[in-house]
Predict the 3D structure of the following.
Amino acid sequence: MKFQSKHISAFCLTALSVSLFFVLRFVKIFSIVGNCAAFFRCSDMVTPLIGNAGLPSLGIIFALRFALKVLFYGTSLSGLLYQLPGLFASAYWALDNKLLALVVPFVCMVAFLMHPTGFAAAPYMLYWFIPMTLYFVRSKTIFMHSLSSTFIAHAVGSVVWIYLHPMSPAFWLGLIPVVAVERLMFASGMTFVYHVSVFAKKFFLQQQNFKKFSKVIVHD
């Protein structure tokens, strides 16, 4: 009975998370600059939190996500590359190590500068110092962790975008204030959903413990 109760709670939490993620996919926040047909959605905001499930679950979820996209929309190299920002951001939640916090943003900076347009719009990439700097903060808040995660996604996504979509240096420089609002919104959303998920987990555990306690009282 204990085993069954534990797995019922886990199933309820998983079902709640999947349902919430599915609903958030339909909530558009704003269009992606440079492609009016593409949008950032609320699901993109909370995708990095998948990393809390651990690396094995992270790999399975992204594999299934890509498989579904291939099944319904067809496969392409760009489709695979567009999965990378969320994958790296989620991996940061799962690991929070030097490779993701320091090396990934640095490699993205180099790749961005190697592109002629990126070199002319170099100030744009200064945002990627944020996760590198926050890595050295000993006691990070959930918001700070979310901020690092979303800027890692931003770094990887920007490099993918600059090599796939031609835009002028002036256009990239004009995005600098937009990015500030966008990423603060993403980090705030991640922080909010994280705390809601923690509250939901505690609630289910409390309900489970209450049922156990009630059974003990009844039997006594």
About this structure: The CA atoms of residues 127 and 180 lie 9 Å apart.
